[in-house]
Amino acid sequence: MSFEQMWRDLQPVGRSASSGGYFRQPYGAAETELRAWFTEAATARGLRVESDGLGNLVGWWDVASTGSTDVPATDAVLTGSHLDSVLDGGAYDGPLGVVSAFAAVDLMRERGVRPARPIGVAVFVEEEGSRFGLACLGSRLVAGATTWEQARELRDRDGVRFGDAVEGAGFDGTPMRLLDRVGCFVELHVEQGRWLVDRDAPVGVASGIWPHGRYRFDFTGEANHAGTTRMEDRHDPMLGYAMTALAANKQARLGGSRATFGRIEVEPNGTNAVPSRVTAWLDARSESPEALAALVDEVTRLGTERAGRDGTSLTVTPESVSGAVDFDPALAARVATDHEGGDWPLLPTQAGHDAGILATAGVPTAMIFVRNPTGISHSPDEHAELPDCLVGVSALADTLARLAG
């Protein structure tokens, strides 16, 4: 099955008829359909499918010289990505890496490649954190960066516990023992910016990931009538939120960082009522851990000062913080160098990935990015041109063949 056919098969799954964006949240109908598609695609290629108690999947191309398809993989080369999406997200973030991995296996077989090391195509669940709030949750549990005891108590917006969602999908919460069998991991991903567009390059190799975090800002005030309460008598938490959002934008611009308030909840959420509480989530990213800490500290200070002037209060809670990731420089150089047309460029990324979790856990890791002509991601406008996708498939096939010997 060609790359184009696989892409056509996935295109309608979880797609909104109104916006054209995707809703592929973990353990929902669309994501369940995609996991079934993965199993079918892997089985059709003769790959041995392994699933764990979370829904993480790996399709193994075992080493033919063993004479058995049941031997455990050792020192394997792992590739793949994720199939879930953000709310109203794009088609390419995650699935491009999975479809490209299958297409790369097909291409290697066409080229007569006989790997000396097993090759696995992986799918990690809840990479986006769009349902349970903690990004890369599937790979975190596999890597031991988060425990089941911690993860199972996470709740989605409807109050559903992660543990209940996992068990309701027929899983028991036990992550697979993967890292002690993997020698390296390569994740192909659509670029989530314009670095490759500006340099007129179809593919590039990641040098590292910026440190980033998600922080909950709870502004607490006093509910009151919107018409009868004088302006000077109000304790309105919305004012503190509004000023803090503007302050975050200014501080990020001054420091070359990123700061986004993309989610907000208001109580009682009435048109004619002064709110009693505003809860907002800050996504912050910086070039270094020190810059990230300074950014969040300054935004918190400014928000707290404003809350004090309004007779309200502010509490800030870090919900997810990931440190800087420097991908294995020797592996990155090996992936990037000596290709037709010259070396592939190296670029940093400000987005988190499962590759960052595995790298932090000690697995030599690399990422290949495919050019995004719009530079837009986490949006229905996210895109990659077919010729660039096919260059990415070839680049991944070259890389896997090198690494698998």
TrEMBL record:
<keyword id="KW-0378">Hydrolase</keyword>
<comment type="similarity">
    <text>Belongs to the peptidase M20 family.</text>
</comment>
<dbReference type="InterPro" id="IPR036264">
    <property type="entry name" value="Bact_exopeptidase_dim_dom"/>
</dbReference>
<dbReference type="Pfam" id="PF01546">
    <property type="entry name" value="Peptidase_M20"/>
</dbReference>
<dbReference type="InterPro" id="IPR002933">
    <property type="entry name" value="Peptidase_M20"/>
</dbReference>
<dbReference type="InterPro" id="IPR010158">
    <property type="entry name" value="Amidase_Cbmase"/>
</dbReference>
<protein>
    <submittedName>
        <fullName>Allantoate amidohydrolase</fullName>
    </submittedName>
</protein>
